Amino acid sequence: MFAVSGFGRFDYFTGNVAHRAIVIKGSQLFHHNHRTLNNRNSVTSLLLPVMVITMMIQACNTENIPETMTVKEVSFDGDAAGMPWLVSLGNGGVAMSWTRTENGIPRLEYSRYEDGSWSAPDVIAEQQEREEWFVNWADFPSVVELDDGRMAANYLVSSGENIFAYDVHITSTGPDGNWMPSVVPHTDGTQTEHGFVSLLPWQNDEVMAVWLDGRNTSGGHYGHGGGPMTLRSAVIGPEGLSHEFELDSAVCDCCQTSAVRLPGDGALVVYRDRTPDEIRDISFVRFRDGTWEEPRVLHHDGWEIFGCPVNGPAIDAIGETVAVAWFTQPGDTARVKVAFSGDGGDNWSSPVQTDTGQPLGRVDILMLDDQRALLSWISQDERDARIMVRVVHRSGELGPPVVISSDDGLSTRASGFPRMAKYGSSGVIIAWTAVDGERRSVKVRMITITG
To answer: Taking the model in full, what pTM does it have?
Structure first.
């Protein structure tokens, strides 16, 4: 068996695919019609031909924005799979991990998308006998490429009878390319929650892990029955575990963390904080000059909420230029915001409201260059929920919002968090979990931005 988490936090997966494309130029919409093909038998395939998809476009300070955006679906055998994670590779390709469950046994798989096709899926790890994985819509595995080209990944394994008692496991490929036995980066040994991991390639071919750590909670969720959730980090290398630190002594209990590596062996981590007054705004903590600095609030939204919203921030960087996206809801007014820093987090721009109304959040962000970022989020109205993307400029200008999908059960928690990664010089891969009743599948699209 594997863990079925409470608070609507679990699912496993199957599904289907569609084939669509859209082209945006400035605030204009161009349609392209093509014959539809279906290839679900092979992971290795080219981009599918496409057909028209309906989009929502609203001009928002777009008059001087020349970007052209094209969206196509990428063929991928995503049946019985979910919780995709994407990372850009040093050769311009993309690696994607996902969880697939067959006969009640979950396993973590990954594949590379290079030169227009997927490699054969590789099994990173699989639930073993007498082992119970924690498979969760919001606390999902990830994969990252290390400096020497090896890969590292994380997944979660239950550690006790409490539904929220689970450990982080981190594995990496060896010199032969095979996945090695996993390492647990926390040494407390408590049967409490450890998860919401961010992995960074680190110096000397190591991997830095940052996670939420519940060792002080006594196994209670939302801090009930014990102390608060903490934010911790450690480095895992050939010599084992080192440099385990507490970064923040009280944080939100179940929102995703996000981290980037900065020049000069620096790192920047963003997360949802928590005050004694239950203000849960976004904070950041930075590793610089060989030490972790004190946490700082990125922006004082003043969101007071008595419970975790399960809606973490996202961060990306090019050099010292950093972009952060997050969801907030002070005064019951939901918003998605983006802020930039040009100096690695010393100073931040005033946040820009980037949603189009009624956002659910679940954000991701990618720096396209040192002046622009691509934002994704989920929005909802009375009819359906939609994956949206738009270009956000450091100047505060916004590109037109583009609908990526609107028919995949996106309002349900099982649909999870869409993820993005750069592909080549002008492409972005986006992937998400599609929900159709009890069926789940991973869907993938290519976004090409020119201009």
So the answer is: 0.87
